[in-house]
Write a structure and sequence with these properties.
Order of helices and strands: HHHHEEHHEHHEEHEEHHH
Structural class: alpha+beta
Strand order of the largest sheet: 2-1-5-4-3
Helix content: 40-55%
Radius of gyration: 30 Å
Largest sheet: 5 strands, antiparallel
Strand content: 5-15%
CATH class of the largest domain: Alpha Beta
Oligomer: single chain
Number of helices: 12
CATH architecture of the largest domain: 2-Layer Sandwich
């Protein structure tokens, strides 16, 4: 496996977003997180004969290292990356892993559920279809989204499972899952909770400890940054596509009307000039438009036209005037 770090992945995202000033807040948060993500994503050495605590620490570091490589692809397909992230957690860190995100419309969407047995994943999805999560539950995904705080239960008590069951059949299903230990961590970016990662142990009967919670929170921080910046990148791409489509539509319409149409930037540089200009004035494209258009305006109108343009450009207001243009045959109209 190549030794690529999470820092490299996030720096790639940073470079893609740096050209847009609207991403300043996200870039600042990303810059603050890069050193931590780099430290976390370095794979540790496998040591023979170590104790259980050290083995668990090694599994955590290896999981985070593999996750960092997957996060490098989140710019283009972050939902598939989060699903891969859940699968990587099983079985080294969890028996069950799930990822929920808040969509742009504000709905909560589960993008991944992972377990070693695919049949159990289908089973859980069917359970959730029959018994959808309660948005007002005092714990779980919706509560973490409301509070922005992690949840950790080292040993899930039977009383808690019974309190969350809707009926006797639901409780029997929950008991059959054999849920043992639980961690739920928020995905927080720019002060907003945009998702939740859930880890659960069951058959392994591993009890999560404070180190596991800290690890899960650090992983969630890096995943949230990748998710948020992927969304920003997607929004920027969509905005550029809309702008390009609008520009193409404008050029098509401007080129079709029997009028001279041009547009200029606030600095006075022209950004579009319809073919009618050349047809009417006979001017070529050998010199910049800024040097050409004054030659086409009647000398008696030029000073006033230039003054009005300068005033409108400085104030950002609209302006209009009538002036005579020189035709290709030397006459003014």
């Amino acid at each position: 496996m190549p030794k690529r770090s999470l820092t490299l992945a996030l720096r790639r995202v940073r470079d893609l977003l740096a050209s847009d000033d609207r991403n300043a807040d996200a870039l600042g948060e990303l810059d603050r997180a890069l050193p931590l993500c780099d430290e976390l994503s370095a794979p540790g050495d496998v040591v023979a004969g170590v104790g259980e605590a050290q083995r668990r620490d090694e599994r955590r570091r290896q999981f985070l290292y593999e996750a960092s490589i997957e996060l490098a692809t989140a710019v283009r397909d972050y939902e598939a990356t989060l699903a891969k992230l859940a699968r990587l957690a099983v079985p080294g860190f969890a028996d069950w892993a799930a990822v929920d995100v808040v969509t742009e419309g504000g709905a909560v969407q589960r993008v991944a559920v992972a377990h070693l047995n695919p049949a159990k994943v289908i089973w859980v999805q069917e359970i959730e279809r029959r018994y959808p999560p309660d948005p007002n539950a005092p714990n779980g995904v919706h509560n973490i989204l409301r509070t922005g705080r992690s949840e950790w239960i080292a040993r899930i008590p039977q009383e808690l499972l019974a309190a969350g069951a809707r009926d006797a059949e639901h409780l029997a299903i929950i008991h059959e899952l054999g849920l043992w230990s639980y961690i739920g961590v928020p995905l927080v970016a720019r002060g907003r909770t945009i998702g939740v990662i859930t880890f659960v142990t069951a058959d392994s009967k591993v009890e999560y400890d404070a180190n596991d919670l800290r690890f899960a929170e650090e992983l969630a921080m890096c995943a949230a940054l990748a998710l948020d910046n992927a969304r920003l990148f997607k929004a920027a791409e969509e905005a550029r596509a809309r702008a390009a489509a609008a520009e193409e539509e404008f050029r098509t319409l401007a080129g079709a009307v029997p009028l001279i149409v041009w547009s200029v930037t606030p600095e006075g540089d022209h950004s579009y000039l319809s073919p009618r200009w050349g047809e009417f004035t006979g001017q070529s494209d050998d010199e910049p438009f800024a040097a050409r258009w004054p030659k086409a305006v009647h000398p008696d109108d030029l000073a006033r036209c230039t003054a009005l343009w300068s005033e409108a450009s400085a104030s950002g207001t609209a302006w209009q005037m009538e002036y005579r243009l020189r035709r290709f045959d030397g006459t003014y109209r």
